[in-house]
Write a structure and sequence with these properties.
Chain B: GO terms for molecular function: transmembrane transporter activity. Chain B: InterPro entries: AA_ABC_transptr_permease_3TM, ArtM/GltK/GlnP/TcyL/YhdX-like, MetI-like, MetI-like_sf. Chain B: Keywords: Amino-acid transport, Cell membrane, Membrane, Transmembrane, Transmembrane helix, Transport. The complex is a heteropentamer, with 2 copies of chain A, 1 copy of chain B, 1 copy of chain C and 1 copy of chain D. By secondary structure, chain B is mostly helical. Chain B has 9 helices and no strands. In chain B, helix 1 crosses helix 9 and helix 2 packs antiparallel against helix 8. Helix content of chain D is 38%, strand content 30%. In chain D, a hairpin with a 2-residue loop joins strand 3 and strand 4. The longest helix of chain D is centred in the C-terminal third of the chain and has 16 residues. The chains are: A alpha/beta, B mainly alpha, C mainly alpha, D alpha/beta. At the B-C interface, helix 3, helix 4, helix 5, helix 7 and helix 9 of B face helix 2, helix 3, helix 6 and helix 8 of C. The complex binds adenosine-5'-triphosphate (ATP) (2 copies), magnesium ion (2 copies) and sulfate ion. The site of one adenosine-5'-triphosphate has 11 residues of chain E, from strand 2 and helix 1.
Chain lengths: 272, 217, 216, 248, 272
């Protein structure tokens, strides 16, 4: 376990969970765009099987933080460890990883995007098989079988030969989830997976995500769906202005937010 | 004598040629953009005949080589009773030819305009020419400016072909200096340099408009 | 003008077509390579690529042909007229293609690239498997436009002794002192060659549109 | 050593223009005309092969000055400006610059009638230099000078414009003009001289003395046995028998 | 009043409202795309001062119907009357109106779009002044004064010289509303005015709309915001498959929907 753990402000987990192995550690992550300090020294520890929900107003840095976790955005300082291994920088020094090393570690972190980011020139099945076959070099047949099983699981078996443009938003996002699962990642990142969906289609995606949470996947979820966070999160983290303002179990956070900022934020959501 | 010294002695001829190139290509660009708007509007119109006619014109021009087109305008039109000076034939050829290219790229930008923007115009009572002028064209221009700049560079280069119909543009001047004094490289390098300055100016202009456009995207 | 004259112009057409095809085939990857250098912002190469595109786009093809054919030997690279012509046309069309490829690369959706990176694809793989199959379609109309312009600018290489359509026509005109008829033949031949390209583009576009309609 | 280099390589590279009838032009895809036949004559028993590249005038000069071609075997008019950058072999023809009008143009009966008229000439040509001098003379004699000189890249376009009536006269060598007028006697008529005679010769870059010497020898042979005059008769309808041995 | 009124299935208004003049009548509106019957004989009467909310699942034809009202979409059959005047077809016959006639009648119907559809080349103020000056030919100074007053009203006075691209979604939509109001229209149409907005920004737009409703504007609103419909609508119309399945006062509709389809629809929204 990393020595930074002691400094982690977000490790207020229930005692029985403290035994579980740590999957992700972020420590002192900062990021500035021009003069705009977007992330101001964030710490986060995620243990196996946890579902951590990141909440916060628009522009508070949620997406940026999530993208720092798999180094899609390069933080200015701070460290990210995946199961104890450095992400983005080589162990020991501050040399950035090569394209190859970065690619290797990213295969272990699945990501689901707000606007799906499916590859439009590939069919649904090909979207799911693409990275397993061409990145992980799994056998084509094995990858196909697994992809079909995953599509079955998200309820899209019969759409496998369609192109993404034919699908509704909810279906697209379920393909996005299957695509991430196909990598058998240690950690799943979700960036507002339902906010580009029609209200009616949100439910089907949230149902799949609830399922994943209940089977013990390790997930970090940026979301505006308060009901989902309340029901599913093992921990809620509230960001504002690039800092963690409050964090804790969902009952506590939604029931009796400790800070004014969180209270204000929750109020805005409850009115229409 | 050093080739460049000879070119420098004849700089007046070269600059006169450069001035002609600038005048011809910029006026051709401006006129063909303006008239290209009308052809683009015809291409986008709903009728049966008008868009086809416009499409025929555009594709014909795209198929015809400019050199021969200019040649026919200059030498062929007189037999049809229309006699123009070399300068006006050159400008006419450049313009007629490039209206088609400008129209095609304006059409692409027009097609790419979000249909809601135009619909909002209709919903607020705009129609016909007013709709095109006030609602459609400004954003079309902003998004087409890089392509218009590109095509203007093509016009600059096409204008070099007008030497065949005796228009004293930059290539004409450079050729004339090289064959009088036998200094081919000095004169062509000087010509390229002047062409490059003109093209850079156009690119800078495009970048400037792009800057203005950026605020509105 | 005799039938032999017409035949000589048709022979010029064969030259025009083969030179154009050669430079189109070479100019497409050249332009793509240059665009990729600019896209990935490789430090020094980026500057070189920018200079190449800027200068070559500004040079009339005639001048470029003269420089390549006659100036390169002074630095020890002597080419025969055909190679020099292909090099001229390739460099010139490559510069314009580079701008077209760069344009479509710049407008390629960033989140698709992010997704490819997030799934552990390396740079080359992202380009080959995700970007290329898609930008080929969006670049097509502009690339074909450039091809038509480049076929039409091929008479420029006549200056180094290549007898293309236009030069063949001029030779006939110089002998008969009546240039309009051979030029009319040349005009028809050019238009036909370019028309094939324009039609091919329209066909590919229609097929693609049908595919998309079927998939949408 | 220039000639030695050619002999060592076994090939003499020459460039010839393709649209300067009757000196050189292309017929049925083959180069022909006076210079081409004369070249074949004088190099028939030369100790090297001849590689003749046919190309436009605009490409010949750069080719010769950079040494890509050993010699421009094409009708180059010898002028003082050109002597500073080129060497010339012995003259192959003599040329006087004339004007040509449309048949029946009564407004131009003699060279002095060119005052106030529009004339067409090839850009950068020796004829242009000569005609500018003639224009000065017109003015010195109290005339207005010509109205405008239109510069063409090559002569076919100049003849075309004359036929259409955009210009009143075309200025070129008498030989060229005569050939045009013979071909189109219903359209064009050759007028009077507007210059003193000048020589036409083949050109090399500076520093090819031995090659020039070699050519001079061969050309003189062709004159001595009368073969050059036969060719002149064939292509120009006249002969030039009083030319000097070499260009100085 | 039109003779079709008797057949109007949606005129179940409270007695006191029946006195108010009718602003809009739609009768027997049908529309087919290919073989897809999108509108299947819709009737609607809107009286002055009413706020009618159109609800329904995705694809039920809400947008298409709204767009038929100002003839942006040309219905296959049916009539639309604005204050008794025909829209789209010339009075009497079935000849379509000329562009000019259509434009004239459209100036009396304001429209607010889902994706704002502001004109990107004009500043906020110019967007609002554009149609009054160039369509209605109002004096520039008068139009400016009115535009500034309207921007003040939607809380955007200080943004008037910005270009739309610089605004947040909520601000854009408020400009869209000011732009529609500047025409002083008899009727306002809204097509999902908040569904492209971040959850946090929805409130500011709904607040403006509530305000408009309470001052007695005549509005037809397509929306997914159930809370808004419940609080603000004078009448709710539920569409499904191109037909009006249920309509009535919001208390009745939300409290005790009469049809299964509506009940099902409302259930989906409450979970989530
Ligand atoms: N590439 C970038 N360049 C400059 N500024 C950026 C960039 N990406 C994000 N920002 C800025 O960083 C801040 C945080 O952005 P971020 O997208 O992380 O917020 P967020 O919490 O995800 O918001 P939202 O809920 O709207 O998605 C914002 O002020 C944003 O403008
Ligand atoms: N231009 C068109 N061409 C073909 N079909 C269309 C067109 N516009 C709409 N449709 C179809 O008409 C039906 C109704 O569409 P409409 O947009 O009116 O629904 P909606 O109720 O507004 O849905 P949403 O809540 O998703 O906006 C849909 O099946 C849609 O696919
Ligand atoms: Mg975000
Ligand atoms: Mg809709
Ligand atoms: O004299 S040149 O260098 O221009 O040939």
């Amino acid at each position: 376990m990393s020595p930074m753990h002691a400094a982690d402000t977000t490790s207020a987990v229930a005692p029985e969970d403290a035994e579980r192995p740590v999957v992700l550690t972020a420590h002192g992550v900062t990021k500035t765009f021009g003069t705009n300090i977007v992330l101001d020294g964030l710490d986060l520890t995620v243990r196996k099987g946890e579902t951590v929900c990141l909440l916060g107003p628009s522009g508070s840095g949620k997406s940026t933080f999530l993208r720092c976790l798999n180094w899609l955005e390069r933080p200015d300082s701070g460290t990210i460890l995946l199961s104890g291994e450095r992400v983005g920088l080589r162990a020991g020094g501050n040399t950035p990883m090569s394209d190859r090393e970065l690619a290797a570690i990213r295969t272990r972190i699945g990501m689901v995007f707000q606007h799906f980011a499916l590859w439009p020139h590939l069919t649904v099945l090909q979207n799911v098989m693409e990275a397993p076959v061409h990145v992980l070099k799994r056998g084509r047949e094995e990858a196909r079988a697994e992809a079909e099983a995953l599509l079955e699981r998200v309820g899209l078996a019969e759409k496998k030969d369609q192109f993404p443009s034919r699908l509704s938003g909810g279906q697209k996002q379920r393909v996005g989830i299957a695509r991430a699962l196909a990598m058998q990642p240690d950690l799943l990142l979700f960036d507002e997976p339902t906010s580009a969906l029609d209200p009616e289609l949100v439910g089907e995606v949230l149902a799949v995500m609830k399922d994943l949470a209940s089977e013990g996947r390790t997930m970090v979820v940026v979301t505006h769906e308060m009901a989902f966070a309340r029901d599913v999160a093992s921990r809620v983290i509230f960001l504002d202005g690039g800092r963690i303002v409050e964090s804790g179990e969902p009952e506590a956070f939604f029931g009796a937010p400790k800070t004014d900022r969180a209270r204000q934020f929750l109020q805005r959501y409850s009115k229409g | 004598m050093n080739g460049f010294a000879i070119v420098w002695e004849n700089r007046q001829e070269l600059f006169a040629g450069f001035l002609n190139t600038v005048l011809l290509s910029i006026s051709a660009a401006v006129i063909s953009v303006i008239l290209g708007v009308f052809v683009a509007a015809a291409l986008m119109s709903r009728g049966r005949i008008l868009p086809r006619l416009a499409g025929l014109y555009v594709d014909t021009m795209r198929c015809v080589p400019f050199l021969l087109f200019a040649y026919f305008i200059y030498f062929g039109l007189p037999s049809a009773g229309l006699r123009l000076t070399n300068w006006s034939s050159g400008l006419l050829a450049l313009t007629l030819y490039n209206i088609a290219y400008m129209a095609e790229l304006l059409r692409a930008a027009w097609k790419g305009l979000p249909s809601e923007t135009i619909e909002a115009g209709r919903a607020f009572g705009f129609h016909g020419a007013g709709l095109i002028r006030r609602i459609i064209l400004p954003p079309v221009f902003f998004s087409a400016v890089p392509m218009i700049g590109n095509q203007t560079i093509q016009i600059v280069k096409d204008s070099a072909f007008l030497t065949i119909i005796t228009v004293a543009e930059l290539t004409h001047a450079a050729t004339s200096i090289q064959t009088t004094y036998f200094v081919p490289f000095a004169s062509f390098v000087s010509a390229i340099f002047l062409y490059w300055i003109l093209c850079m100016t156009i690119e800078l202009g495009v970048a400037a408009v792009g800057h203005v456009a950026h605020a509105r995207r | 003008m005799t039938w032999t004259d017409v035949l000589s112009i048709v022979q010029g057409a064969l030259f025009t077509v083969s030179l154009s095809l050669a430079s189109i085939v070479l100019g497409l990857p050249l332009g793509l390579g240059v665009a990729l250098i600019r896209w990935s912002r490789m430090p020094i190469f980026n500057g070189l690529a920018m200079a190449y595109v800027s200068i070559v786009r500004a040079s009339p093809a005639v001048t470029l042909a003269l420089l390549i054919f006659f100036a390169l030997p002074t630095v020890g690279l002597s080419l025969d007229p055909i190679s020099a012509a292909i090099l001229t046309l390739t460099l010139s069309t490559g510069a314009f293609n580079a701008e077209i490829w760069r344009g479509v690369l710049l407008s390629f959706p960033k989140d698709q690239l992010d997704a490819a990176a997030a799934f552990g694809m390396r740079r080359g793989q992202r380009f080959r498997r995700i970007v290329l199959p898609q930008i080929i379609h969006s670049a097509l109309p502009a690339l074909v436009s450039e091809m038509t312009l480049q076929i039409k600018s091929s008479p420029a290489v006549a200056v180094i002794g290549i007898v293309d359509i236009t030069r063949a026509a001029m030779r006939v005109g110089a002998r008969t002192y009546d240039p309009l008829p051979p030029f009319a033949v040349a005009l028809v031949l050019y238009s036909f060659i370019v028309w094939i390209f324009v039609m091919a583009q329209r066909r590919i576009e229609r097929r693609r549109e049908a595919e998309l309609a079927a998939a949408a | 050593n220039d000639l030695d280099a050619v002999k060592a390589a076994g090939t003499l590279n020459v460039a010839t223009e393709d649209d300067f009838h009757p000196f050189e032009f292309v017929e049925d895809g083959k180069p022909t005309g006076y210079d081409t036949e004369l070249l074949a004559l004088v190099t028939a028993d030369a100790p090297f092969k001849v590689n003749q590249q046919i190309m436009p005038w605009a490409g010949i000069l750069p080719g010769v000055t950079t040494g890509k071609y050993d010699m421009a075997v094409t009708a180059v008019l010898v002028t003082d400006e050109r002597k500073t950058t080129l060497d010339f072999a012995g003259p192959v023809a003599e040329s006087t610059t004339y004007y040509m009008t449309k048949v029946g143009n009564d407004a131009i009966k003699s060279a002095s009638d060119l005052n106030g008229k529009t004339v067409g000439i090839q850009a950068g040509s020796a004829m242009l230099t000569q005609f500018k001098a003639f224009d000065e003379k017109l003015k010195a004699d109290g005339g207005t000078g010509v109205k405008e000189i239109v510069e063409y890249q090559s002569y076919p376009e100049a003849y075309q414009d004359l036929a259409i009536g955009r210009t009143d006269a075309v200025i070129n060598t008498q030989i060229n003009l005569q050939a045009v007028a013979n071909e189109k006697s219903d359209v064009f008529a050759v007028g009077e001289a507007v210059s003193d005679p000048v020589y036409i010769a083949w050109a090399t870059a500076k520093g090819n003395e031995k090659l020039v010497e070699f050519m001079n020898g061969k050309l003189m042979e062709a004159r001595k046995d009368g073969k050059m005059y036969e060719l002149q008769k064939k292509w120009f309808g006249t002969t030039f028998e009083s030319m000097p041995e070499a260009i100085k």
